Structure formats: structure tokens, C-alpha cells
Amino acid sequence: MNANDNKTKATSQNIQYIAIADMEPESGYQRATNPAQVSSIASKFNETRLGTLTVSARGGRYHVVDGAHRAKALRILGYTHAPCVVLTGLTFEQEADYFRRQSEDRRLIKPMEFFKAGLASGDERCHSINQIIKSNGFRVGSGKRDFFRISAVKALLTIADEYGEGTLNATLGLIARAWSTYRKASQSETLLGVAEFLSRYATINFAELMGKRFPAVFRDYAKTARTRASAGSKAAREKFCSAIVYHYNRSSATRGGMLMRREGQA
Q1: Domain for residue 2, yes or no?
Q2: Are 189 and 239 in contact (CB under 8 A)?
Q3: How confident is the model at residue 231 (pLDDT cuts 50, 70, 90)?
Q4: Which of 22-31, 91-100, 198-207, 212-221 reaches the highest mean pLDDT?
């Protein structure tokens, strides 16, 4: 017998026609609806391909877990009701966790959505990583023009998983001290390259030695990187790490310091 057989299910679901006016499409843990996508759905609408929306009955409203774009398109087209899988018995946290789990299984969820849903659901790992991010002056969000707003959530999760949360903390702290004036310094390839560097080498006076060398490091890395899409690969991290080492050693030599050595080596 399965250990869960004797447990009462806290969540039930059924299919109903729900009034669109009673739906809350913005849940707080999903990506914001894209007006262009809503318009595209409305302009090409085919009722036979609508499927069902998934909503959570909570607090007298129906919170859209899956289908926010379709719900808004239906509203534009004048529909008053939509067929929905209605979930009941979920708290906000359980609803957020349901969203990321079912989306993860379907391979539709993006790392930032997974992370935000993890925060909303109370996931300890996500909250621990978020605390590290915030303690170094960063925040998670889209914004290519803002150094301190990191959209490369996959890179952050990779660093925490593969190198440890201590290395994630050191990576963000080092980048913030040395390269806060360079927008690309908080992008995926930089985050992973610095984490690789920190996992191999000690850092002495990094901000002083490397503060103005980021453009040269990134230029040398870009020459060797095959495509932007490969930025998260192990090979790309090692190439970025090599570029850092080269310029770190050059800067150390010109200032009369010792060249970088691997930890534990003579």
C-alpha cells in the first residue's frame, strides 16, 4: 500500500464554466501577461482550440493558474464565461507551488517564473538564494539597463547548485565591488565565469586590480565564445575564467604583485 493512501486529499478539482469577470489573471508569481500575445490570440481565435483554463478558487475569486493570456483574449472578444479546471482547497503558497510543479512537468516554465513561484510558495532554497541576492544589493527581475537587476536566474541557481551558496555570495559580492559600472557584468556569462574563477583561485585585491578591466575581459571571452546561447555551458565558464586569470595576472604583474596561483599549489 502506498504511504499516501490513508491521507485525505486537501485539493479537489472539477470542470466548470466560470465568469471571466470573477477571474484574477495576475497572480503575483507568474510572468506578467504580454499584451501582444493577448492580441495575437484574439486575432487568431479558434474556439475549438481554446481548451480549459486552470483556476484556483480562493478568497471568493478565481485566480488563474494557467491561461491568463487566453482569459484576457476572451474578455476582449466579448465572452463572459470560459471552461475551467477549478482547484479548491489551495492556499496562496500551495497554489504557487502547484503552478511551478505542473509547469515544470510540462517544460513550459522559465527559470525566473520557477524562482518567483518558489518564493511565493515558501520554498526554503529559493528564499535562501534570494537573501544572498538581496544582501549584495541585487534583485531578481527583467531590466537589461540595470546592473543590479538580474534576469539570469538560471545562472544564479546553477551557481548555488554546482558551486554552493557561499560561492554565489562571493560571486555577487565581488562583481558588485569591482564592476557595478558595467551593465554586462551581471549577465549570465559573467556570473558563471566569476563563479568558476572563485572555485579555483584565491582573490587578493580583485576590485583594485580588475576594476577597469571588465571590457577587456568580456572582449577576450567573446572572441572565444561560439554563440550567445552557449553562455551557460561549462566550456564557456572556463573561457570566461581564463580571460579573468589572464588580465588579473597582467594587472598583478604591473603592480609588482604575485601572479595568481591555484589554491593548494606551490
Answers
A1: no
A2: no
A3: low
A4: 212-221
Residue 90: how many other CB atoms lie within 10 Å: 21
Query: What span, in angstroms and rounded, lies between the C-alpha atoms of 71 and 247?
Result: 53
DSSP string across 175-223: HHHHHTT-GGGGSHHHHHHHHHHHHHB--SSHHHHHTT-HHHHHHHHHH
Contact yes or no for 57/86 (Cβ under 8 A): yes
Q: Which of 194, 199, 156, 161 minimizes the C-alpha distance to 175?
A: 194
| Inside any domain, residue 260 | no
* Within-domain flag for 197: yes
Task: For 1-41, write each residue's pLDDT tens digit.
Answer: 333 333 334 568 888 889 999 998 877 777 778 888 899 88
| In a shared domain, residues 140 and 78 | no
CA dist., res. 72 & res. 110, Å (int)? 21
Q: Do 160 and 129 form a contact (C-beta atoms < 8 A)? A: yes
pLDDT at 230 over 70: no
Alpha carbon 113 to its chain's center: 6
Structural domain range at position 86: 12-118
* Contact present, 224 and 193 (Cβ < 8 Å): no
Tens digits of residue pLDDT in 51-81: 889 999 998 999 998 888 999 999 999 999 9
Letter for the amino acid at 210?
M
Pairing type for strands 53-58 and 81-88 reads: parallel
